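Lecture notes, continued. The same structure-token format from the folding unit now serves as the input rather than the output. Read the line below as a description of shape only.
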């Protein structure tokens, strides 16, 4: 089994340059990665089942081949689980988007973490809005 040093290839799985997306990745990027990994897991599951079936009807099992395919499936499934965990964590804490730059922010945040714009509109009660200090 090869390692991620240099070429980003782990047992036939091509990882993006930085490995799994980081929590700083955009939500749309994480959703896109989740979809890609879910499709890959479905494909690998289908392939492993077909391989096991073909071996069974020929009554010739190659456990090394089955173990290698199962390991590949397990690796991609673990990546999918991590992306789903990141999405669930991010979505649970997301309250809205910055009006200036569109970055997501958590509930109660006063300023945008990305651009520094104020998130809470300063409001005054309507009774006080007409009142202003008298200019003398």
């Amino acid at each position: 089994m090869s390692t991620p040093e240099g070429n980003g290839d782990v047992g036939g799985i091509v990882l993006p340059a930085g490995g799994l997306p980081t929590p700083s990745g955009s939500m749309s990027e994480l959703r896109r990665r989740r979809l890609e990994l879910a499709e890959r897991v479905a494909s690998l599951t289908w392939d492993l089942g077909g391989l096991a079936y073909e071996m069974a009807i020929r009554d010739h099992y190659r456990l090394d081949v089955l173990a290698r395919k199962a390991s590949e499936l397990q690796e991609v499934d673990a990546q999918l689980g991590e992306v789903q965990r990141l999405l669930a964590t991010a979505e649970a804490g997301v309250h809205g988007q910055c009006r200036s730059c569109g970055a997501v922010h958590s509930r109660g945040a006063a300023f945008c973490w990305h651009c520094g714009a104020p998130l809470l509109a300063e409001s005054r009660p309507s009774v006080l809005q007409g009142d202003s200090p008298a200019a003398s």
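Point for the exam: Residues 1-24 have pLDDT under 50 and may be disordered.
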